[in-house]
User: Which sequence fits this backbone?
């Protein structure tokens, strides 16, 4: 079975790590969010693509959920002495990735091309595609004005009240080569347990991707990143509220219908099965919180069995 | 007494470290060679400016003669995994300097401006000027063709036979702001014990700098980097030969006359005093090889006494 996944960072990385231990990685295409991409120190940083690449090659710092395991921060400290910004913590070995990517992009290589090159070099066995080679920037509106996602999430620690969200540049963006085909010609599409607004939302904002999800014959399954009335991690709850969505699996279902077939929700949300069903998605109830490799694999196995 | 020095990397750094312990650093302007500047990983690297800045702020790795003391090379190792070039060893903390410089240059800051900003941030007390804000590239002609200085010196370890040297771009380069004034309005100009061909040569190749040296009322003193018939360090001998110069203090004198007043030579070369004098420079004989802080300071003190 060929699978195409839409993915953000941490939550997606956990689920996909489980998935790749249950299926042939060669049959998996992952479309990664680049709405969080940012420029730090003049370098192009792709946080979600890197988290996925690092996680799926066994390099991720699992405790932090970002960056490389056992990395050091000596360049960061030196940059601080020079007066450069230090709120975005780039590790020394991680830095090589951003420098490599930035040089390739300046030389005219596409983000698709450089993502592939990095994946190849690091031994990534799945196919990882950025959602687009064009810049789409997730921006958060707060009472003090608009800010980039990384400014909101990392620098301001997601403390600012959110009153709006936009995906700047999306209207002119084109899906990266292979993205639409990966949705149209696969057996199943899995929307990973990622933030619906800032991880999956930017992917859906690229013209053509929603239509491909509507048209595909593949079964489309999402895993709710919301358990109870809160996100398992990150600011998804606050951002869903700002978009007028209930912070619940029902809110997730509302974001993904009408193209969603199945929604995996946690046992704790069993009372929401009826409401999910009314929105046109079939609920699948299981344990969704991934705390270790065993729970990642168990969730992935259940998903594959459901899709089979 | 105000002093202006023309400087390359390691040898100059040693001498200037001695000089700054014998005079007020505020009265010292150093014009640094940028003919060795290169792009590594898409970053602008200025080896001589950095060696001088690091040395004069107590940060230089003294044993190696380049880079920062106690630096690590984790980004370099990671870049190797990605397939990037690793022959030019950029340390993790050193990398911050190159990233900082590259971003500033791309943002339109001049090399003079960014060199000053780095010096300020690191506590550099002298005034350090690049010879030019324009690109001048020292290139070495070998039997296999032309190569950049860093390719010749670092990647090929100066093993290739040299048949020619050029300073590409020099004809269109302009001295950096302050350079000509620093030569014209100072009390003394010191040509540091640097490679005459690849450290001082590029500085002299910038239109206007030789003329300023000819016209200045300042006394002009050079310290020979050649002792006996060999360079104290580096490929100066090979390069002088390739330029048809004797590898000796006389060869150094020939490079710097007619604007040179005094040439400091080593006691071992005492027999060359007459030949130096015939070229129009007055020889000053002393111990010139700097092996520790005491010998750096002793040479600097003798130079200042000679100039006083």
Assistant:
């Amino acid at each position: 079975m060929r699978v195409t996944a839409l993915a953000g960072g941490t939550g997606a990385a956990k689920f996909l790590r489980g998935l790749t231990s249950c299926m042939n990685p060669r049959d998996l295409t992952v479309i990664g969010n680049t709405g969080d991409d940012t420029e730090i120190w003049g370098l192009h940083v792709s946080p979600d693509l890197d988290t996925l690449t690092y996680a799926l090659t066994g390099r991720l710092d699992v405790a932090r959920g970002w960056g490389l395991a056992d990395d050091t921060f000596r360049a960061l400290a030196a940059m601080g002495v020079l007066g450069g910004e230090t709120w975005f913590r780039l590790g020394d070995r991680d830095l090589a990735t951003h420098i490599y990517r930035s040089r390739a992009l300046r030389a005219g290589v596409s983000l698709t091309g450089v993502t592939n090159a990095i994946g190849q070099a690091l031994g990534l066995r799945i196919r990882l595609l950025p959602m687009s080679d064009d810049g789409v920037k997730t921006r958060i509106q707060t009472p003090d004005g608009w800010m980039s996602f990384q400014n909101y999430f990392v620098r301001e620690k997601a403390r600012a009240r959110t009153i709006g969200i936009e995906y700047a540049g999306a209207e002119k963006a084109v899906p990266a080569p292979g993205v639409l085909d990966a949705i149209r010609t696969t057996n199943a599409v899995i929307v990973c347990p990622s933030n619906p607004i800032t991880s999956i939302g930017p992917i859906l904002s690229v013209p053509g991707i929603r239509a491909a999800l509507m048209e595909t014959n593949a079964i489309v399954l999402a895993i709710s990143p919301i358990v109870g009335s809160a996100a398992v991690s990150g600011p998804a709850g606050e951002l869903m509220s700002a978009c007028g969505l209930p912070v619940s699996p029902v809110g997730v279902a509302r974001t993904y219908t009408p193209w969603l077939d199945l929604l995996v929700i946690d046992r704790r949300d069993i009372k929401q099965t009826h409401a999910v069903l009314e929105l046109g998605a079939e609920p699948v109830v299981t344990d969704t919180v991934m705390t270790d490799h065993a729970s990642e694999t168990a969730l992935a196995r259940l998903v594959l069995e459901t899709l089979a």
In short: Chain B has a mean pLDDT of 96. The longest helix of chain B spans residues 92-106. Chain B touches chain A at residues 41-43, 68, 71-72, 74-79, 81-84, 92-97, 99-100, 102-103, 106-107, 117-118, 121-122 (CB under 8 Å). Residues 52 and 224 of chain B are 19 Å apart (CA to CA).
